[in-house]
Specification:
Layout (H helix, E strand, L loop, with lengths): L2 H21 L4 E7 L17 H9 L1 E7 L4 H10 L28 H7 L3 E7 L18 E5 L10 E2 L8 E2 L2 E2 L2 E2 L8 H15 L6 E6 L11 H4 L8 H26 L6 E7 L23 H4 E7 L8 E3 L3 E2 L3 H8 L14 H6 L7 E7 L4 E6 L2 E6 L28 E5 L15 H15 L29
Parallel strand pairs: 1-9, 1-10, 2-12, 2-13, 3-4, 3-9
Antiparallel strand pairs: 2-11, 4-7, 5-6, 7-8, 10-11, 14-15, 15-16, 16-17
Helix pairs in contact: 5-7
């Protein structure tokens, strides 16, 4: 063979390898969202909670110690799916109720559609809660190839009925794509969901990357779990806390079964797993965010600092706790970067892949907790400093788990509705208000909030629509009434 032929062969091999490296299949992405999971409700923070599968994934991967979400379900899901703060779309206040004629505005291209455009198969299993009054608002119209789950924010774990039986507004809420699911009555939802996830994994063609969004119903109210899980916590005398803890362990079993399926079908080494809660836990319903202040629905750390981790063979640094700032809006641009795409330059979210995969400094130095024009409350963090303005939400105290004495009284009165400044590096549990001692820092952060408020859309807070009542739709919550 001539020297020229050798050179040509070398160049051909070189460029082939380069092209394979540049254009090889990106990893599968499994995005697991737990509902209403408290800061203190995972085994890797609280050994009293039995979550061996979640703990193993967390310890093998990267535990996210400053990963923030919104105070409520719908706003966090809006952030996950759009990459924008929910106050930019009018979804910053509360949640979308089943009879409210609204949804994530159709001008937004959601995460699953973006992943689909990058060549991914896209699947959703679980809770939507982003509007369904029109079919165009629902998952399979917003980028998901398949959907198996429910539209509303809460329902019975066994009957899958949203609304109390006997109440004038109640109905079945369970869909397989657009078809109504009627064969899961009596099956605990976590079991239904993990079985569907395993089924999809078992049939997946590994030549195509897969994006699976798995927002579990667990551990949102109603507080329900098979007795075998409740009985794992007979040492807990408080009934709500005992049942809730069992719910967390049932969720953990579901995560374990899905992880085993990824191993069984040879996908685990090519799958990035991201786990997060959607907001802090509701302390009055058995959840616990100790030692953080506040709970679900508040802009205190206990309502917004979420338990989470990332896991995968593609992580260059793992087995540690990451203390860099990450926000819910960051997952969309991060997933797009992992998939080989790029997000819009005006997006609130930023690509955090180097942060979570290599331990590099965060791509952000500030974020907005929320701007709620209905509650008249807002909060922002810049560096280590956090400013709260107005109403931070109802649950503003410190709520220890049963058996630990609360030495800090639940604050009451006008203090809730002023300005409060905290240095979270020194005071992560928000005991010491520095607003009087650091007026210049207060003014700096107020100016930041004022800037963000210029981009706020007034909260969508529509009146209930009587035509949404499932009694007009065969006893099933259905689109088509707005």
């Amino acid at each position: 063979m001539s020297r020229r032929c050798h050179l040509d062969l070398f160049l051909l091999t070189f460029f082939t390898l380069c092209c394979h490296k540049c254009h090889g299949k990106p990893p599968n992405i499994l995005f697991i969202v737990a509902d209403d999971l408290g800061w203190n409700d995972v085994g890797f923070r609280n050994p009293a909670i039995k979550t061996p599968n979640i703990d193993k994934l967390a310890y093998e991967g990267v535990i996210l110690n400053q990963s923030y979400v919104q105070p409520w379900c719908t706003p966090s899901r809006t952030a996950f799916m759009t990459g924008y703060y929910p106050f930019r779309s009018g979804l910053q206040h509360g949640v979308i109720h089943g009879t409210e004629p609204c949804g994530v505005p159709l001008k937004y291209t959601l995460l699953p559609q973006k992943m689909k455009d990058l060549g991914y198969e896209t699947h959703m299993i679980g809770k939507w809660h982003l509007g369904f009054c029109r079919w165009e608002y629902t998952p399979t119209y917003r980028g998901f190839d398949t959907f198996y789950g429910y539209y509303n924010g809460a329902e019975d774990y066994y009957t899958h009925v949203q609304g109390k039986l006997g109440h004038h507004v109640h109905g079945l809420d369970f869909r397989d794509n657009k078809a109504v699911v009627t064969d899961q009555n009596g099956t605990y939802s976590s079991f239904s969901y993990y079985k569907r996830a395993v089924q999809i994994i078992s049939k997946h063609n590994s030549s195509t990357p897969m994006f699976m969004y798995l927002p579990f119903q667990s551990v949102h109210s109603p507080i329900e779990v098979p007795k075998v899980y409740e009985d794992m916590y007979l040492n807990i005398k408080n009934a709500s806390r005992r049942i809730y803890s069992g719910m967390v362990t049932a969720l953990d079993d579901a995560v374990g079964n899905i992880t085993e399926a990824l191993k069984d079908y040879g996908l685990i080494n090519d799958t990035l797993i991201v786990f997060t809660t959607d907001n802090g836990g509701p302390s009055h319903l058995g959840a616990n965010n100790w030692p953080l202040r506040g709970a679900k629905t508040t802009t205190w750390e206990g309502g917004t600092r979420g338990s989470g981790f990332v896991h995968g063979s593609m992580l260059k640094k793992k087995g540690y706790v990451n203390n860099e700032l990450i926000h819910a809006v960051d997952w969309l641009p991060t997933f797009m970067a992992v998939a080989g795409g790029k997000s819009e330059s005006d997006m609130d979210g930023v690509n955090q892949w180097r942060t979570v995969s290599e331990g590099q400094p965060s791509a952000r130095t500030e974020f907005v907790y929320n701007i709620d024009d209905v509650l008249n409350g807002s909060a922002i963090r810049v560096g280590d400093f956090k400013l709260l303005q107005g109403n931070p939400g109802r649950w503003s105290g410190w709520y220890p788990p049963p058996g630990i004495e609360n030495v800090h009284r639940d604050p009451i009165g006008e203090a809730h509705f002023g300005e409060m400044l905290f240095n979270l590096a020194d005071d992560p549990n928000e005991y010491n208000d520095l607003s009087k001692a650091m007026p210049q820092m207060v003014e700096k952060l107020k100016a930041k909030i004022s800037m963000y408020k210029k981009g706020m859309i007034p909260a969508l807070n529509p009146d209930p629509e009587p035509k949404a009542n499932p009694k007009y739709w065969g006893g099933v919550w259905s689109p088509g009434w707005c």
